[in-house]
Inverse folding.
């Protein structure tokens, strides 16, 4: 290079590639002489994948991980929480998004609306939410057992889409 010519510049304004070496040129929010370039980009909200609705029985454990991401650079930390109203016993791990709930003794059948929220650590902090329903049914109860022509008849109420299993033993003392 034989010469470098700079046009007139305002005081304390830097322009450079960010992250260092990338193609796009940015006006730096603060001068960065002899150090890496920094750009203060506006914070964008995280995104939370939709959470499907669930159907469970009273006493059954509902367990899943909420999935979220944030495209801001540098990476921000994400924190999970539940919005009010929160069903008794429902919890979500703030760091992992692991949701657990075992409804016990609630009035069934019932539809419970739950909202999971994820919040980023940006300034200002932004969030996204996803709501889903959990329909709870009472545990299956046997109707009176009947015997017809040497056949034992067991019957109980069922819910569509659920699988039921009867366990038995030949030894009533075990």
């Amino acid at each position: 290079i034989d010469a470098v010519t700079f046009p007139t510049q305002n005081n304390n304004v830097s322009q450079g590639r960010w992250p260092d070496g990338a193609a796009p040129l940015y006006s730096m929010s603060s001068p960065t002489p002899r150090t890496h370039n920094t750009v203060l980009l506006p914070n964008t909200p995280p995104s939370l994948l939709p959470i499907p609705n669930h159907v469970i029985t009273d006493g059954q454990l509902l367990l899943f991980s909420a999935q979220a991401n944030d495209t801001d650079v540098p990476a921000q930390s994400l924190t999970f929480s539940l919005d009010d109203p929160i069903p008794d016993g429902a919890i979500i791990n703030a760091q992992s998004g692991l949701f657990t709930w075992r409804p016990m003794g609630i009035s069934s059948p019932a539809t419970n609306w739950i909202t999971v929220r994820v919040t980023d650590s940006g300034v200002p902090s932004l969030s996204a939410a996803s709501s889903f329903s959990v329909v709870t049914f009472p545990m299956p109860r046997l109707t009176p057992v009947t015997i017809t022509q040497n056949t034992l008849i067991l019957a109980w109420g069922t819910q569509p889409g659920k699988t039921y299993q009867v366990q038995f033993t030949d030894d009533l003392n075990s």
Remarks:
- The mean pLDDT is 85.
- The two ends are 92 Å apart (CA to CA).
- DSSP finds no helices and 13 strands in the chain.
- The longest strand covers residues 110-120.
